[in-house]
Amino acid sequence: MNDILFSSWGGQVVDNRGKAAQAFKPAEQAPLPEYFKADEKIKALIGWYGIALRSADVDLVDLCREYMREVHQASCGKCIPCRTGTGIMAGIFGRICSGGGQPQDLGRLRTLARTVSATAKCSIGQTGPVAILHALEHFPEAFQAALQSGAAVARGSYRSCVTAPCMDACPIHLDIPAYVESIREGKFRASLDIIRQRLPLPGVVGRVCVRPCEANCRRANLDEPISIKYLKRFAADDEPAHCKKPDYGVTPSDKTGKVAIVGAGPAGVTCAFHLAGRGHRVAIFERLGEPGGMSAVGIPDYRLPRPILRREVEQIRKMGVTIHYNTAVGRDIPLSQLESDYDAVFIGIGAQNSSAMMVEGEDKGYQGFIQGIQYLLDINQGRDPYVAGNKVVVIGGGNVAIDCVRSSFRIGKKDVHLVYRRTRAEMPADEVEIHDAEEEKVQFHFLTAPVRVLAENGKVTGLECIRMKLGKPDGSGRRRPVPIAGSEFVFECDTIVPAIGQQIDLSLLKGIDGVKISRWNTIGVDPVTKQSGRPKIFSAGDCETGPGALITACAGGRRAAFSIDCLINGKPLEHEESDDFDTFFKAVRVYDPHEKVGTVGGRARRQLRMLPPEKRKFSFDEVEEGFAPPEAIAEAARCLRCYRIATLAL
Predict the structure, then answer these.
(1) How far apart are CA 552 and CA 123, in angstroms?
(2) Torsion angle of alpha carbons 565, 570, 573, 575, nearest 10°?
(3) Of 325, 169, 186, which Cα lies nearest the Cα of 261?
(4) Angle at 621 (CA atoms; ends 616, 623), nearest 5 degrees
(5) How far apart, in whole angstroms, are the C-alpha atoms of residue 473 and residue 455?
(6) Would you tell me how many other CB atoms lie within 10 Å of the CB of residue 363?
(7) Could you give the 3-state DSSP secondary structure of residue 625?
(8) CA-CA distance, 423 to 478, in Å (whole number)?
(9) Which of 52, 58, 389, 622 could form a disulfide with 7 if both were Cys (CB 3.0 to 4.6 A apart)?
(10) Confidence band (pLDDT; 50, 70, 90) for 134?
(11) CA distance 414 to 441
């Protein structure tokens, strides 16, 4: 950043004080946004990685006072150096800013900052005082002036936030360090309570989440990331294993109303959970005969047993939520009627249709040509999609494609292949799922693309393919596959399952004006409030973002519930401070994969036990066995509790 007066952020000291603006050295380690929100310009940042100062009129002493107050409040009190030391430091800053500072205060602050940083057991104490040492070193004149004047320092305008790399990466921002620590302490119910403050589907997400949190876990800088996903599953599974029942407290809003939710998938269920928790009367309309939406019929039981999903949705029903199954909005009941009968409508439908391959013969209705979504739907409802088929070729590289090939073995298909136009390295499917499919002896054919569906007497007999090579990167950042002329060949098979993408069916919006449809055929809403162009209609999940992660859908449903509550109570639908910090942290990254964490390490990540490949590939039994309590406690003990505190001067 070329407008930064001073920065110590990320260990790089850049001091432009006293220089002409055109001579400023850029502070490359401090990507400080210009604005926190439209009318609030960021003057300075102080936090876990140092200081970034943009405006000379920021009082560094008062900034340190505010920041240290936040650090002390965030301290958990489980180690004396952090809780006591940060409290003393906050008190010293308070005394200095009130005009009662003493000459020895600066020396005491340095000693305390170094002691707390060196002896605290978690990152609040380890990183919190670092910026104070930077301030004392680089701004001694500001502290001396405050001591000598004996006058009270005017308080500035600040915004503060406590986060962690894993929390920031989690779309729904679960307090991951807190629920992991509760497991470490053997407080399994407390851990689950922390998770359920935001997420009503811990057992589901603990099985099928794509783990963005683990990709941002600082423990990976030492050895391996914490098994955050499976610790969530452990906390969820412990409840029914010990015949416990959730205790969902309801705190009614000042005014409550009626809300209709379209779709009982992750977005709709999460929205219903948070609205019911505020006392609203919620009715869900689901086209299928069971809850879960695409997560129920699109994810095989060996990954997500449906009793788990049904149990967690049943708990929401016990909060007073009504679910109307086998009811398709737009077919059985018009959306306009819901909009008329209810105070708000939330649309959370999933990506129910498959994308076309755009190859010859796919639209001919041949027996044995089955779209990936339909293929999984049939299997998950106990049907063989094509009884006459024996040799299955699945086309695609995502999780749906992997689910299709792995499910094929489980319905008795002996010869199963996957065709993908790029290499294994470019596959978007979860690496764990790819590895498991390899163990189950799925035959992969990389750098291969379909050209034409072959058939005789209306039945699939083969797939003409062409070899590919990788060219320059495309818009996705992956190298573009390019056909190799003359390399066509025929893949003999009787079943073809294209699984190259999913589409949203928005026919329920027919006749509804004012709701924008994007060029990707998704519902256009405010990205934060989730409100559409029609004030009573909200949307989140796949139908807003396109096919995405289940946890992202849950996060959207939660945010929409907050907006709907505001609408019913006549409050403006504005961005919360946490929404603005979300945007801020996208620029000032919370996780640094190059950070030198320390020398402690070497404690291997606990892995779940799995059924052997030769046994599991022919069964829909859950392939993974959850942690036992001692294993969960040991894995939770690997957490570094990497909380981060950031304070902005505005």
Answers:
(1) 27
(2) -80
(3) 325
(4) 55
(5) 35
(6) 12
(7) strand
(8) 10
(9) 52
(10) very high
(11) 10
Q: Which two tokens stand for residue 187?
A: 């407080």
**pLDDT band at residue 602 under the 50/70/90 scheme:** confident
6-163 to CATH, choices 1.20.1440.230, 1.10.260.40, 3.40.430.10, 3.30.70.260:
1.20.1440.230
SS3 state of residue 244: coil
Question: Using CA atoms, how far apart are residues 522 and 193, in angstroms rounded to an integer?
Answer: 34
Q: Which secondary-structure segment (H or E) carries 464?
A: strand 459-473
Note the pLDDT of residue 1.
63
Whether the pLDDT of residue 643 is over 70: the answer is yes
Dump pLDDT digits (tens) for 60-109.
999 999 999 999 999 988 888 899 999 999 999 999 999 999 999 999 99
Does residue 371 contact residue 496 with C-beta atoms inside 8 Å?
no
Tokens of 236: 């969820």
Residue (of 211, 229, 80, 164) closest to 636 by Cα position: 229
Average pLDDT on 13-31 reads 93
For residue range 238-287, what is the model confidence (pLDDT) as tens digits?
998 887 778 788 899 999 999 999 999 999 999 999 999 999 999 999 99
pLDDT tens track for 317-372: 999 999 999 999 999 999 999 999 999 999 999 998 889 999 999 999 999 999 99
Write a three-state SS string for 254-294. CCCCEEEEECCCHHHHHHHHHHHHCCCEEEEECCCCCCCCH
Q: Dig out the tokens for 428 from the structure.
A: 């978007």
Q: What is the pLDDT of residues 439-454, one digit of tens each?
A: 999 999 999 999 999 9
Backbone phi and psi for residue 155, each to the nearest 5 degrees, phi listed first: -75, 140
Across the chain, mean pLDDT equals 94
The answer for residues whose C-beta is within 8 angstroms of residue 510's C-beta and 6 or more apart is: 330
Give Cβ neighbours of residue 316 (< 8 Å, ≥ 6 apart): 200, 269, 272, 273, 276
Give the separation between CA 243 and CA 210, rounded to whole angstroms: 29
Phi, psi (degrees; rounded to nearest 5) at 431: -55, -35
Name the residue ranges covered by the structural domains of the chain. Answer: 6-163, 164-352+504-574+606-645, 354-501
Superfamily of domain covering 354-501: FAD/NAD(P)-binding domain (3.50.50.60)
Superfamily of chain region 164-352+504-574+606-645: FAD/NAD(P)-binding domain (3.50.50.60)
Looking at this protein, which amino acid is placed at residue 642?
C
Average pLDDT over every residue of 278-307: 94
Interior angle at CA 240, CA 235 and CA 242, nearest 5: 90
**Closest alpha carbon to 136 in 45, 33, 243, 61:** 61
Q: Strands 258-262, 443-445: parallel, antiparallel or unpaired by DSSP?
A: unpaired
pTM of the model: 0.93
